[in-house]
Design goal:
The complex is a heterodimer of chains A (616) and B (72). Chain A has 616 residues and is α+β, with helices and mostly antiparallel strands. In chain A, the strands form five sheets. In chain A, strands 16, 17, 18, 19, 20, 22, 23, 25, 26 and 29 form a ten-stranded antiparallel beta sheet that branches. A six-stranded antiparallel beta sheet of chain A has the order 15-14-21-28-27-24, with no helix packed on it. In chain A, strands 1, 2, 3, 7 and 8 form a five-stranded parallel beta sheet that branches. In chain A, a hairpin with a 2-residue loop joins strand 22 and strand 23. The longest helix of chain A has 20 residues. Chain A is globular, with a radius of gyration of 25 Å. The two termini of chain A are 43 Å apart. The mean pLDDT of chain A is 95. Chain B has a domain of 50 residues. A three-stranded antiparallel beta sheet of chain B has the order 1-2-3. In chain B, strand 1 and strand 2 form a beta hairpin. Chain B starts with 13 loop residues before the first helix and ends in a 17-residue tail after the last helix. The chains are: A alpha+beta (616), B alpha+beta (72). At the A-B interface, helix 7, helix 9, strand 9 and strand 16 of A face helix 2 of B.
Chain lengths: 616, 72
């Protein structure tokens, strides 16, 4: 049976993140402001009422501050008894008088504390939770949960099985949107639930040994095009985020985009064995009685009411199943085949623009070995690539090399490293191909098309396949009609790209194909040190020194780059004899390039594989 | 001139919003002028609201309700 699952989560936050700065502007800070606490509790009660009125179950994530509030504890107990809500524990909402007094800091993001403090806080909040309810929670979460934190929680409190563990593409873009003051830097994670590995939260576990023991869910379900090139906080299943993006009619207070977003997620069940997922999690600061930015309280309230009503309507129509987080964790492990030992079932998401009116289409793919984005508007080029296969151990927080930066590094990121288009000089990161004829050259990035998804068994292996609509490349005197197919073999840690030459108007014409990847590594917009990278084409080797060198080998069996900084080897291999080449970059273009070139003929099929491996 | 403060609603700078920046504006209660402390935008409430509508021009499909998400 097809299932569209929703998790609705509320947190009684006594000092909401935004209320304290918005309503408190012009006043001295008062973290124990009784008026603010009363208002926050009222918002929580309103949220609970709206969910229950629409027949929806809630996961109540108690905050540390809320555990000191008898009324909040009683509401949670009551709603658990009456509505079947799960009482869980959030690691958000730490700030309160008690926390400040004990930990002597204004830090509030659990992943940024030192490991010593993380342990102390976890022990403190879990025991406080036990004191209030008489049991330990099965679900927890924060905006981000680093692997060391999750591993510690599982060690101390093995009953925990579900956690909110990242916000999709909340990284430098969100930081910039917040005037470079909101330090949630965690790009590169899954957009839909996954089982984090013990080594790195963002990289899904490939087997039981890597299984962290929890099912992770993303903080909100976000627009897979709009968030990639914009402020993620405007485009998610968070009604007030949609208002934040000003995506509503000011006269009617209607926001079809919110429903389009939910419906597009529903549609993803077609590509994921009949399963799709949504998460709605609105903190009380977003329903501030003072209003939020341009929106008065009445509109904030309406949007949350409408969000609950839409999920409630889908439930009544039998199109949605509401679950608590812990229920979902059990469902997910069974549905994905993990209970039967298969960790490799990918998450697939063909996604179209539903906001700007462009008809652009991308495809997101995620499994334990990679996360990739294929852009149909650029002829099926891979425009984002994260090599999860390396399972990079990347501790975050005070006392580590990455106090704030929890992003999983990329090899390709078209927004931070240019992609196809660069200004004047150099190259940007992308996996694409070029065709050339008689001095003319055309990159498939300039051949917009659409794709169609299918799932097929090939040589006994499950493959998810994107079949792109054919494109025509018109040279002076010759036209080439070409169709691309991209294969994601389950568990293979590679992407096969096949070019089918459907027609060459002059079969005798000398047309050449250049399959290439231009890549680097990083987590932000700024370049990293490329020294230490080794490029190889069979026996030809270039140790990266920004010297703009290159080498080529006729009939090369493999071209590769090994990047010690992210313990990753990326390589290309080809289905037929071709000239393999490697190119070093230079200071103004800190990239490397790998590729294969060959002359193509009419009706020929040529394939290359992009392979990812862990390099110790 | 007294210090700037917040208005009844907490308007953001529409000019900065267009470059994906959320910056609160501050109000001169004597003149009714909102000003951005990062860029050079200044204007009364009517101008802010007018520019907020310009912000929405980028959302070409904002009023559409989609029922098909693939291109099959």
């Amino acid at each position: 049976m097809d299932k569209f699952v929703v998790n609705i989560i509320h947190r009684p936050e006594m000092v909401p993140e935004y209320s304290a700065t918005v309503t408190g502007q012009g006043k001295e800070e008062d973290i124990g402001d009784k008026k603010l606490i009363t208002e926050s509790l009222d918002i929580f009660k309103t949220q609970q009422r709206l969910a229950h009125e629409n027949g929806l179950k809630v996961t109540i994530q108690m905050t540390y501050a809320a555990l000191f509030n008898e009324e909040a504890v009683e509401i949670a107990k009551h709603d658990h008894e009456v509505y079947g809500d799960e009482i869980a524990l959030s690691l958000l909402g730490l700030p309160c008088e008690e926390f400040r007094e004990k930990y002597k800091t204004k830090d509030f993001c659990i992943w940024m504390f030192s490991m010593e403090d993380k342990k102390a806080i976890v022990n403190d909040v879990f025991e406080k939770f036990h004191d209030a309810f008489g049991f330990y929670p099965e679900s927890t979460g924060s905006y981000y949960m680093d692997a060391d934190l999750t591993n510690y929680i599982k060690e101390q409190y093995p009953m925990v099985k579900c956690a909110v563990a990242t916000c999709w593409e909340e990284g430098p873009k969100a930081y910039h949107t917040c005037n470079n003051s909101w330090y949630t830097l965690f790009d590169g994670g899954p957009w839909a639930p996954w089982i984090p590995s013990k080594q790195n939260t963002h990289a899904p576990a490939a087997n039981a040994a890597e299984d962290s023991g929890i099912v992770a869910i993303p903080h909100l379900s976000r627009d897979l095009i709009a968030c990639y090139d914009g402020n993620g906080s405007n485009f998610g299943t968070h009604p007030q985020n949609v208002l934040r993006g000003m995506i509503y009619d000011t006269k009617t207070w209607e926001y079809p985009y919110l429903y389009n977003l939910i419906d597009q997620y529903r549609d993803l069940e077609k590509y994921n064995n009949g399963y799709a997922y949504n998460m709605m999690f609105v903190g009380p600061g977003w329903m501030n009685k003072m209003g939020r930015w341009e929106q008065p309280y009445e509109l904030l309230l309406k949007s949350y009411s409408d969000g609950c009503a839409y999920y409630g309507k889908l439930k009544k129509e039998g199109k949605l199943v509401d679950m608590t987080m812990s229920e979902f964790a059990d469902y997910y492990r069974e549905k994905k085949g993990v209970n039967a030992g298969n960790y490799n079932e990918p998450e697939c998401a063909p996604w179209r623009d539903i906001l700007y009116g462009s008809d652009k289409q991308v495809f997101w793919y995620c499994d334990p070995y990679m996360r990739a984005c294929v852009n149909m508007d650029q002829g099926g080029a891979i425009v984002d690539l994260r090599p999860y296969v390396a399972k990079l151990e990347w501790p975050v927080g005070i006392g580590t090399k990455h106090v704030q930066d929890a992003s999983y590094p990329f090899l390709i990121q078209e927004k931070y490293r240019a992609g196809y288009f660069t200004h004047y000089a150099g190259a940007g990161t992308v996996r694409s191909a070029k065709l050339s004829y008689n001095g003319e050259e055309v990159d498939l990035c300039l051949c917009p098309t659409k794709s169609h998804f299918s799932e097929e068994m090939i040589d006994g292996k499950k493959n998810r396949i994107l079949t792109l609509d054919p494109v025509e490349i018109k040279f002076n005197g010759v036209t080439v009609k070409l169709q691309t197919k991209e294969y994601f073999e389950e568990g293979a840690s590679n992407i096969k790209i096949e070019r089918n030459i459907l027609e060459i108007s002059d079969p005798s014409a000398e047309v050449y194909l250049d399959e290439y990847i231009t890549a680097c590594y990083g987590t932000t917009e700024y370049p990293e040190d490329m020294t230490g990278i080794t490029l190889k084409a069979d026996n030809e080797t270039i140790n990266y020194e920004y010297k703009c060198r290159d080498a080529k080998v006729e009939g090369a069996t493999e071209v590769s780059a090994t990047i010690p900084a992210i313990q990753t080897k990326v390589s290309m291999t080809a289905s037929d004899k071709a000239t393999g080449y490697i190119e070093e970059g230079y200071a103004f273009s800190p990239m490397f390039k790998l590729g294969y070139k060959k002359k193509i003929s009419d009706k020929e099929v040529f394939a290359t594989w992009l392979n990812l491996e862990k390099a110790n | 001139m007294a210090q700037l403060g917040k208005g009844k609603l907490n308007y953001r700078c529409p000019s900065c919003f267009m470059r994906d920046l959320d910056i609160d504006m501050f109000l001169d209660k004597d003149t009714g002028i909102y000003s951005c402390i990062r860029c050079q935008f200044r204007g009364d409430e009517a101008k802010v609201l007018e520019w907020n509508e310009k912000v929405r021009e980028r959302y070409g499909a904002m009023y559409e309700r989609f029922s098909k998400f693939d291109f099959d």
